[in-house]
Amino acid sequence: MKRIIIANSNCYHGFSLEEAIAGIQKAGFRYIELTATKGWTEHVFPSMSFSRLCRVQDELQKAGLIPISMSGHCNLMDPQRLPDFVDNIRLAAFFGCEYIVSSVGEAHLKDNTVASNWELVENIRSLLPLLEKHAMKLVLEVHGEHGSGKIVKEVTDAVASPLVSVNYDTANAIFYGGVDLAQDLEDCIDSIGYMHVKDKAGERTEWNFPALGEGAVDFPMIFEKLDRAGNNCPLSVEIEFTQDGPKDLAAVDEAMQKSAAYLTAHGFSL
Question: What's the pTM value of the predicted model, to 2 decimals?
Fold first, then answer.
């Protein structure tokens, strides 16, 4: 079965969605992960006007890009943030997305609430009827305090729903979790439903996430483990550059094209 390869619009953090669409189309991708992350990248957002969201739909269709997923990070430990996440699920459904991505805590805002795993699991279970209504899957990202696939798997196992699985971020597991990727993948491979393929360069805790193939992440090992496990999860390319950000828009476009070429060289079709 052909694996779905996705370009994450968050690669164009600091640039407009129109610029992201143009660059992703030029790199040859067919699928896009839209970003609706509060306080970070709000390429689409529930507070946008209906006419604006319809124009985004038109722009995506014109570019031949299918919005298959949405990054809609909210602190799922915080009951006060659950209505925001419900809005993100509905926004993702508006675009016809099959997946919605969230970290357990905030991705780029301060966590105002930290909850026990039991409370977290109950919060997530409260979302299941809406996910089921929209035939959508929630994938929980390896991020922050939940910085390994093994830890996130504990949450998804407790939720015990086919609608909730792990979004394995290959660089976050190093940056936040400090894990051995090969072992951590073995610990959660059957629970991975989505993957951010993100490279990691520099020191472990250095914000340095270049184009695929320009860092130290052993992607061939990762691809082999997924294939051996029969795990056909989508792969979403994410590039976050250094703390200073990319030099300019052309640098982002070039990194997208390099990442596309890296994946095609490893046998994937965009």
Answer: 0.95
